[in-house]
Each structure stands twice: as structure tokens, then as C-alpha cells.
Amino acid sequence: MAKGMIISFEGTDGSGKTTQIKALSRYLEEKGYMPAILREPGGTRIGEEIRSILLNSDNTEMASLTEMLLYASSRAQMMEEKVEPLLKEGKIVILDRFFDSSLAYQAYGRDLNFDAVLSINLAAVKNIVPKITFFIDITPEQSLKRRQNATATDRLENEDMSFHYKVYEGYKKLLEKFPERIIRIDGTKEAREITNEITSYVDNVLKEDIR
Ligand code: TYD
Fold first, then answer.
1. Averaged pLDDT for residues 132-140
2. pTM (two decimals)
3. I need a labelling partner for 53 at 20 to 30 A (CA). Which of 68, 113, 179, 207 fits?
């Protein structure tokens, strides 16, 4: 059986990450793996407290650097408390967003220095990077349409469209920067078709990993 690894999912809000994560998890279970699904802050008590500051719509005065460091802090806590022990047990850990979100939202979206955001985040995750990352690609317009059906919105979702465009363009740049790790998936396809695409990539990774 494969050793522990992270598979992460990225995309703008409403891209269908959650559906695909569940489908991949079911697929892996059928193959005899016992994957863990985590979304930041991963159920850590400290992370939950940090997250409530981050998403509180009243915190309009939050500085971009504060925002970036808080996401990195919550991530560091989740790594130490949850992800690292799971990886040590040899588990596949599926993450609903990881540090690429900070590169897209905080570096590109908030115009923070890319290298600074990257190195802070690599420190936060102790250089443990995903084996494979799926970027589920839907445009900011499609994302907005899907979000309009949702009931509550958080501080980040309340940002104007120009922010969401920057985040989207940021994800495109990440695809160019990390082509061997990040796979673009067309998020407008049928959910089933997307799942098939994802599972075939994962199958290849699992094959590679068996020695
Ligand atoms: P999340 O609850 O994961 O939202 P979604 O259900 O849309 O995936 O994340 C909440 C918001 O936080 C979302 O708008 C993206 C943003 N975010 C960042 O800006 N930076 C980050 O590092 C992460 C993890 C999320």
C-alpha cells in the first residue's frame, strides 16, 4: 500500500471541490484505502478560533499581511495536530484547500509578495507539499452565479469582482509555476466526468508510489 500523501483541491468558491472530494474519497475507500478528508482549520481548536477572526464579516479593517499570517498559522496548527500524524500512519490525506489558496488569495488577490507568502507557508507546513493538487477551474462569473444560490457569505466572498479575478488569474499563474504538481480540471464538465478524470490521475500517482 502507498505511503502517506497529501492530495489537495483548489478552486474559486462554488467550483464543486466538495463534491469531488467526497467522490474521490469513496473511490479510494472502495480500493481499500482509508483516506482522511480535512479542510482548514482541520478541526483544531486553535485553528477554529483563528478562522472565526478570518471569516468574520465585521473585520473589515484586517490588514492583508494579518490575513495571510492568520491563514498560515491555522495551517501550521492543522499540520502539526492532524496532517502529520495521519501521514505518519501512511494515510492519504485529502485537503479541501491548502497553501495554494494563500498563494492565489493572499499573494495574487491581495498583492502580497509571492516569495514571502510562499516561504512563510512552506515553513508553516514544514515543506510537506501535496503529491498532487487539483485545480477545479470555473471562471469568476460562473463562481458568482453558483454563489448567489448560497445563503450566507463570508468576508472573502464579499470582496468585489476585481479581487475574484485576481485570485482566478493567480491560480492560472500557479498552474504555470508548478506544472508537475497542479492539474487543471475543467469544472464546467459533468460531475461524473470530472470524477473519472481525477481518479485516473490518482490511480497513476498510486501506481508510481508502490515500490
Ligand atoms: P473555505 O471555507 O474553504 O471556502 P470554500 O467553501 O469556498 O472553499 O474558505 C473560505 C474563504 O477563505 C474562501 O473564500 C477562500 C479563502 N481562503 C483564503 O483566502 N486563503 C486561504 O489560505 C484559504 C485556505 C482560504
1. 97
2. 0.94
3. 113
